[in-house]
Amino acid sequence: MKPVNFDYARPADVGAVLALLDDQSRAVKLMAGSQSLGPMLNMRLVQPDLIVDLTGVAELRRVEETAGDLVLGACITHADIEDRRVPDVTRGALPTVASGIAYRAVRNRGTIGGSLTHADPSADWVSMMAAVGARVRLRGPSGERTLPIEQFIVGALEVDLAANEVLVSVVIPKLSSRARWGYYKLCRKPGEFAHAIGAFVTDPERGLCRVVIGATETRPYIVTDARHLLGDVAAGGPAHKVDPATVDAFMAEQGMHDPVDRQIHVTAFRRAIEQAR
Amino acid sequence: MKGEAKSQGIGASVLRREDDRLLRGRGQFVGDIKLAGLKDVAFVRSPLAHAKVHAVHVPEAERGRRIFAAADLDGVKPIVAITALAGFKVSEQPVLAVDKVRQVGELLAMCVADTRAQAEDLAAMVELDLEELPAVHDMVQALEPGAPLLHEHWGDNVFLESAMDVNIEAAFDAPVKITRTIRTARQSMAPMEGRGTVAVWDHRMEQLVLYTGSQMPHIVRNGIAECLGLQQRQVRVISPDVGGGFGYKGILLPEDVCLGWLAMRCGHPVRWLEDRREALTASANCREHYYNITAYADRDGRLRGIDCTAIVDSGAYSSYPFSACLEAAQVVSILPGPYDFPSYRCKTWSAATNKCPILPYRGVARTGVCYTMELMIDAIAREVGMEPYEVRLKNLVQPEQMPFDNITRKHFDSGDYPEALRRAMAAIDLPAIRARQQRGEPDGRLIGVGHSIYCEQAAHGTSVYAGWGIPMVPGHEQATLRVTPDGGLEIRVGVHSHGQGMETTLAQVANEILGIPVDRIKVVHGDTEYTPYSTGSWGSRCAVMAGGAVATASREIAKLVKGIGSHLLQAGSDDVNLVDGKVVTATGSVSIEEIAHTWYRRPQDLPAGIDPRGLETTIGFKPVRDSGTFSYAAHAVVVAVDPEAGDIELLNYVIVEDGGKLINPMVVDGQVYGGLAQGIGTALYEEMNYDSSGQPLASTLADYMLPGPTEVPAPAIDHMETLSPYTEFGVKGIGEGGAIAPPAAIGNAVNDALRPLGAELYQSPMTPRRVLEAIRAARQRASAQTVAEGV
Ligand SMILES: Cc1cc2nc3c(=O)[nH]c(=O)nc-3n(C[C@H](O)[C@H](O)[C@H](O)COP(=O)(O)OP(=O)(O)OC[C@H]3O[C@@H](n4cnc5c(N)ncnc54)[C@H](O)[C@@H]3O)c2cc1C
């Protein structure tokens, strides 16, 4: 199928983007890497009057470091992170995860802002950014607000973003040298979306102890204080101390009723921990 | 001396001539054809699987101008694909639906505009008034009493029942009796290039010219002429480069008929290019089988009998030239495979369902049959405590039985099946794998080894299809050969080459006989205007049939060349030989170039009595016996199964295949590789599911999973070359074989790996979920048993 006829704009700053978004007379859709939007346009699942291409906005490609955080513009691509064209403050976690997203051609174009906004529960950033405790900055006509990922993503393909807002950047906490992380996805073949994701990050110095079980039917299960799931691992202990039954019960509580589904997700979670770095 | 010409003949791995254009992106597919004034077509397709069509509302301003519904298509006949098989029920498929739609994606209206996007805008303006009916979404459900009916006047949902019983009672007292239910998923053939058609009316030639990616352009011409009421001279079908056929492009498309009709009245060329969404949702069309099978055996592994019922999900219609019962009817006749056993009963149903018509995908019925039979052989082996290969060796047809008529009266021409199996077992190194299994894996995965063996009847001809009475009974296959004035050669054949490399291999056949270098030979195919009639490329028939025709015609050309050559050499025509492209006597020689030059450019040098046919001939070929060649292969594979995640990795893959004399071994390897990739897709990845209302659940390749380069191991291939006694050079058809054995070999390997857990899997594709479910079921059985024993 082919998209409906639409107009196209490529503004240079966020102010201009917001002005275009404000136009009530037509349906406006933002486009970053177009790796998720493109297929939706082609299938006419979205039928905008105007496409606003964000990749010309310099601010959205900006990278800043503060004392405690790294701030990545929304249009930083998966490949930028994979190739370490942006600093890594996560002890290799983000570059490693980036290199496993889709295929290189997709990574060259796909952006962190687009991935988080699209909020596919099977997407890698959705799980890993949540595990690392990242926050998103959203800007609208009345100013800017910052949300942790677990508040930003409210459901499968559903985020807390107003129609007149733009995701401008992602704030990633700098992990200390004592931090540990693990990420494991089960997928049928390279480049496929995962059917189970397990992720965790612990950093005693930053008080981080987070677990994410992703590739779920609904929003990924994000546990911000995961000491009960991680057992000794939370305190730097060996992986085999993790109790699969506890994890299984946790997922059942979250509403994952199919036992095979739970088994697959427990497996992904266990392997994330076994491969802790 | 070994001349260069000699090394291009039969048996030489000549590089494929077509690859130069294809690998440089210069192939010419339907989508590459640009004609002035071309407009694009989009179709309005049924969103429902089963519904009454009350109305198709087209905006008045567009009706009959840019949008056309069934009522507008005056004079167009529905597609009817029949067989003479007793009891067959005929389906009528209107090219645009009239009273009812019977599958998601069925055509309801045709929209034409400057671009495809605009044509889709028009399609969005059409409003459908459909009344949804309960759908038949599953082949087993189709046969249940009270199931909704697709074709009401049939009274049931059965295209055809097929059955055979050979002394089954004699097997009933066998000490080993094993019953299993086995299922294979519906698949989409998913060639890289989808379907596509460009149609234009040529006023000068008074012809509808239809460019369509087709394996059988002449059959499409028949069908188009019949549906549109045209004389054959008024239809020209051109099938240019085709990016994968596999059976997907072996039918007359309703879209072809629609575009033909439109081109005849609109005054400009029109085009429709299928997109992936249309391919997946409207045309997932193959492989869906259901078996309930019992094997009877003795304790020493000797097979006593097979008793089976099977259902094939045939979809809503029989496609033209014929599709509905090809698989189910063949299941009856080919289920015994290469085994020799005394008792057999089989009954099958071709079930009509609210899905697209099932089409014969590479391996037609054989893939499902091989999966079923071979899984049963391994089940017997487990039951009697033997190695599966030992059970096979006990039951395979032996070389000294050749030629052999099996229990369903299939005539095996030649072969040494046990030897193929022995070689495969040696190559996979069974003892080493058994030892590795004993040791266990550090990562906790389970190793399994499995193998399978099959036979592939190919190039079966008139005697086999006469009984079917379908619109495409193959007869003599013809080739036209013409020496050009410069001494080159044109070969014209009615089959179509779309990956098989026939532009090379048919030239090699001519080279073998005439000595003309391959690069001076042009193979013309894919155009009804230029080629002799043929039923086309299907049934692994081209090397045997078109190759045989080219060989026969080449010998005729050799006679003509020698006739002129002997005159030029002033020798008797019996005193000359044709060697390396030259007519030679003891004392002199004259080249084909000189002979051609004389015939065309210097006829004054020819004697009065010269054969007036010149250097051109059309001649037909049939094998000595046309019941088909039997090629075969043994596949063996080692897998690692992850019992926690359910993942399956292929560690090693071995193929020992026998395709008779190989015209070009490299091309054969290519066919085997491609078939293997598709077989792995069947085994592990590909599946089109439907919900209970008949909605297909995959509409992109993100949902419909195909194997890619990382999922297909490089197999070790070993060739045996047992000649067929019936064909030119002893060649056999091998085009489909690679796709037949992999699901069975992999399925057996997986079951071998799962054996310590007591789990077995009898459904393809073998997805992680199915693996885990099988393991769970085994654990539940085991704990139920423990509880029972405890009580
Ligand atoms: C073949 C293929 C395989 C893939 N495999 C994977 C995989 O394995 N793992 C994975 O995680 N992902 C995968 N993806 C998705 C890929 O990572 C996408 O790039 C990503 O999901 C979307 O990013 P994008 O920049 O392309 O966003 P777009 O497609 O341009 O936009 C996506 C959505 O976000 C909105 N949007 C984009 N940017 C902003 C912004 N700054 N502010 C507000 N709204 C915005 C758009 O309006 C749109 O609704 C795959 C994609 C393809 C095509």
What does this entry look like structurally?
With 277 residues, chain A is of the alpha+beta class. Chain A folds into three domains: 7-52; 59-173, 2-Layer Sandwich (Uridine Diphospho-n-acetylenolpyruvylglucosamine Reductase, domain 3); 180-274, 2-Layer Sandwich (Enolase-like, domain 1). Chain A is 30% helix and 25% strand. In chain A, strand 13 and strand 14 (221-223) form a beta hairpin. In chain A, helix 4 (93-99) packs antiparallel against helix 7 (124-132) and helix 10 (244-254) packs across helix 11. Among the domains of chain B are: 2-25 and 476-621, Aldehyde Oxidoreductase, domain 4; 289-462 and 625-782, Aldehyde Oxidoreductase, domain 4 (2-Layer Sandwich), CATH 3.30.365.10. Chain B is 28% helix and 24% strand. Chain B contains 18 helices and 31 strands. Residues 1-5 of chain B have low confidence and may be disordered. The interface between A and B is medium-sized, with 23 and 26 residues. The structure holds flavin-adenine dinucleotide (FAD).
List key phrases describing it.
heterodimer; A: 277 residues; alpha+beta; Uridine Diphospho-n-acetylenolpyruvylglucosamine Reductase, domain 3; Enolase-like, domain 1; 3 domains; five-stranded antiparallel sheet; four-stranded antiparallel sheet; 11 helices; 14 strands; globular; B: 791 residues; Aldehyde Oxidoreductase, domain 4; seven-stranded mixed sheet; six-stranded mixed sheet; 18 helices; 28% helix; 24% strand; disordered N terminus; binds flavin-adenine dinucleotide
Query: How many distinct folded domains of chain A?
Result: 3
CATH 2nd-level architecture of the domain at 289-462 and 625-782 in chain B: 2-Layer Sandwich
Which value, in Å, is the CA radius of gyration of chain B?
28 Å
Number of helices of chain B: 18
| Largest beta-sheet details of chain A | 5 strands, antiparallel
Small-molecule binders here are:
flavin-adenine dinucleotide
The overall pLDDT of chain B, averaged over residues, is 96
Query: In terms of structural class, how would the helical and strand content of chain B be classed?
Result: alpha+beta
- Name of the level-1 CATH class of the largest domain in chain A: Alpha Beta
Q: What is the arithmetic mean of pLDDT of chain A?
A: 95
Q: Report the CATH architecture of the largest domain in chain A.
A: 2-Layer Sandwich
State the shape of chain B: globular
Number of E-type strands of chain B? 31
N-C termini distance of chain A: 45 Å
Residue share in β-strands of chain A:
15-25%
